[in-house]
Amino acid sequence: MKIKKTLLLFFFTALGSMFFLSGCSLYTHPKKITVKIPKKFKYALNNENFKIKNDWWKNFKSNKLDNIVSKALKNNLNYLIAIKNIKVAKTYVSQNESNLFPTVNFSYEATRNKMPSYQTALSSGGSVSGSSPTVIYNLNQAGLSASYELDVWNQVNNAVKQAKANVSVSKEDADVVKLTLISNVAQAYFQIQSLKESIVNLKKEYKAEKEILKLYEVQYKDGLTNAEPIVNTKTNLEILRTDLNDSIKQKDITQNTLAYYLGKFPENFKLSVKTNIKNVLNFNGNRYSKLIPPNIPSEILTQRPDVKEAEYNVLAYAYAKKESLANFFPVFNLTGSYGYASPSLNNFIADANSVWNFGLDILAPIFNYKTNISIYKRSKLQYQQAVLNYRNTIINAFSETDSDLADFQKDMQTLKSYEKNYRYALKLFNIYKVQYKTGISSKITYLTYKENLLNSEYNLINQNLLVKEDVINVYNALGMGLKD
């Protein structure tokens, strides 16, 4: 008797110790991971304080672009899949919440039994004989049973919280898809616009080069020049033809890509993009600087969806680790049933026919210790991976933002140089145009300076595109575009 009392005392003491030691870990909210970040970006612009729209594509003031972005957000299949993933993640929340409630089962059974003659005699206390009657009887049984696993170690509650954290992960993942989609659509739109402008420009260059070739061929026939200018001009024509074909091909590919972003087949997609080369040539590059948010605080990156997604992943794995830790402790299961059993239905529901039971099952995880320790080690390593991924995501966010800001600044310097070159080429072209009309300069000289002007225009078109892409990349790196 003393031994039994000692064992019981030991059991409850051990149980209480486990509960005390695990209480802090199993019931407390996971600690927030802190990462020290720089106060400001390395290549931040010290712009004047002007307002930038968060739906940044509207800063370019293009109704066509606004319309395309709106259609992409409604029809892009990858984004729609990401939205569905949020709903899928929510089903796991309700699934885990159901474990907080007892399992209830109702049963009814009617059986017909036949008792042999020898059993009839034995049950009545008589001797076995051939004359003993065979008894046939019915048995009706109905019952209501319930089972409930006590969430002593907060395992079910932690599973619910993990599922909710995964819902947040899915939401942030959808925002990552959204930001990437908007950036890709805007860049594709401007690429198509720029390629169309380049095609027009290259056709003009090609036409001017063909005129030069004809003039050189005439001079060669008259003995005024050798064959070298003709060969060089033909080489230039082939280069221009190649560039023109590449631009046309790239335009078609980009249009197909944009159709994909909009959830359309390329065969059913048409895009009319207005090109106005004057807007490029008269555009002051300094205006691009006003598209970049001024005095950007570094804390803005904590709102980037990929950073928030990584943070929620840490939270999810923290709860998963708590779940795996609870596997080491006993499972307490309350069971109970109540019902009736009677050979006849007319007095079926009567106190004399009622049956019930109630019990507490305690399942100690002893022989599956190796399985549980493996699960716990894996969850711990996955949590550590999530923490490292969170820190890596933050560092990568700073690296992307600083790189995009640096690209913008350097490309802006190049754009300003191209703008100067274009103005110089325009002045020289106007001079030689007048000289050609007055007979001072030859037509070849005039066409050569016309080609120089067209070439500087071509560089300006492509550099404008590059700066626009830099601006878009900055918006994307800052996580802008999620809130109106």
Describe this structure in words.
- The chain has 484 residues and is α+β, with helices and mostly antiparallel strands.
- It has 2 domains: 21-101 and 153-329 and 368-478, Outer membrane efflux proteins (OEP) (Up-down Bundle); 103-150 and 331-364, Outer membrane efflux proteins (OEP).
- Helices cover 63% and strands 11% of the residues.
- The chain has 11 helices and 4 strands, in the order αααβαβαααααββαα.
- The chain has helices at 2-27, 63-75, 77-97, 117-123, 155-221, 228-261, 277-281, 286-289, 305-326, 369-437, 443-478, and strands at 103-115, 135-150, 331-342, 354-363.
- It has a 4-stranded antiparallel beta sheet with strand order 1-2-3-4.
- Helix 5 packs antiparallel against helix 6, helix 5 (155-221) runs antiparallel to helix 9 (305-326) and helix 9 (305-326) runs antiparallel to helix 10 (369-437).
- The longest helix has 69 residues, at 369-437.
- It is elongated.
- The model is unreliable at 7-12 (pLDDT under 50).
Output the number of helix runs: 11
Mean pLDDT: 83
Shape type: elongated
What is the ordering of alpha helices and beta strands?
A: HHHEHEHHHHHEEHH
Helix and strand composition category: alpha+beta
Strand content: 5-15%
Fourth-level CATH superfamily of the largest domain: Outer membrane efflux proteins (OEP)
